[in-house]
Amino acid sequence: MMRMFTVQHWRTRLRCAVLVVAAVPLFLNAMSALAASDAPVRVKDLGKLQGWRENALVGYGIVTGLAGTGDAPTNRSTKQALANVFSQFNMTIAPEQVQSRNVAVVMVTAALPTFAREGDTLDVTVTSAGDARSLVGGTLLLTPLKAPNGRVYALAQGPLSVGGYRYDANGNVVQKNHPTVGSVPAGATVEVGTGANMVDARKNITFVLAEPDYTTANRVANAINAQLGAPLAEARDASGIEIRIPESLRDHPVQFFSRVENVTVEPDRRAKVVINERTGTVVAGGDVRIAKVAISHGDLKISIATENTVSQPFYIGHGGPGVQTAIVSNSHVDVDERNAPAFVAATNNTVADLVQALAQMKTNTRDIISILRAVKAAGALHAELVVQ
């Protein structure tokens, strides 16, 4: 499989990796043995009870106190918003009369947890909704945060924390990160508490796996029944395990939930290899298997040197209109193929073995990614290949 040409300063270097899918038995087989026997984990680390969810809140507010970096004076939404604020304090000012660069209209967002009581505080995120250049040094005025049902559940206010800045003068700009986004830690106060009903009409609860898998769901149900000493759980599908609350604990559901959450189980793991070509990252479980294969890796370098010369006629201007100066390019191509092939063959190999073998051959990460994709295309990689 050949790589694309890249040209720099009239010279082109080509690296070529010829792949025939592969693996080697190395000391990383020990890693595979360890990965195959994963330690049991708690049920609560595999998912959550059905009904457990966060609720999105959003509001529209104003940030004041900016040092001339707010919305432009011609921004109509800013003028109207500021005039509305003034009207709350018995000040009648027409929107057309509002002129300020120290104010910015913003959108405020927060997440209301599953169980929230009046007086709890929430972190809020503030983003510019106008043409403000920076929110550094600003303070968010009192902003109601609403849920999709239109009801106000929290009130947000406080000074902004911005992880960046922007300063400009005379056409020069110095900027770090995104100065038009900030946060107010614990800046919202819950006004209306929320809760969730985890128990259905039949006095059952449903545990939902974060990653649906039939094998894991069946193991969770069996572990709950074994460790609680009664047939209370049954896997309904790949993600849901229905659990019956015993009559002795129906008046104490929290105690029963705690016992279920702390049940330990050995989950099944689907074989995956995740690669990120932008950062050159490869992540795979140590026990991800590949078929018996081999690697041949070589290096081909092509250099193209171009020399430009000028052909100057002796009698320019006396030989007619067709006589003129010409630029002549002479190119020299040099091909250097350094064959350093490596061939290995083995059985019961893993991706960890393959990566270790390629590293010993001084193969860079991006070539390893190409090799893994070729292995998958050949049908020798027994795992799902996820390309980010």
* Rg computed from alpha carbons, rounded to a whole number of angstroms: 33 Å
Structural class by SSE content: alpha+beta
Give the strand order, joined by hyphens, for the main sheet: 5-6-7-12-9-8
What's the total number of strands? Answer: 23
Strand and helix order: EEHEEEHEEEEEEEEHEEHEEEEEEEHHE
- The 3D shape can be described as flat
User: What share of residues is helical?
Assistant: 10-25%
Count of DSSP helices? Answer: 6
Taken together, the total number of domains comes to 3
Distance between the termini: 21 Å
Summed over residues and divided by their number, the pLDDT gives a mean of 79
Fraction in beta strands? 25-35%
- Largest sheet at a glance? 6 strands, antiparallel, barrel
How would you summarize what this structure contains?
It is built from six helices and 23 strands. It has 388 residues and is α+β, with helices and mostly antiparallel strands.
Main features:
388 residues; Flagellar P-ring protein; cell projection; 6-stranded antiparallel barrel; 6 helices; 35% strand; single chain; flat; 4-stranded antiparallel beta sheet; 3 domains
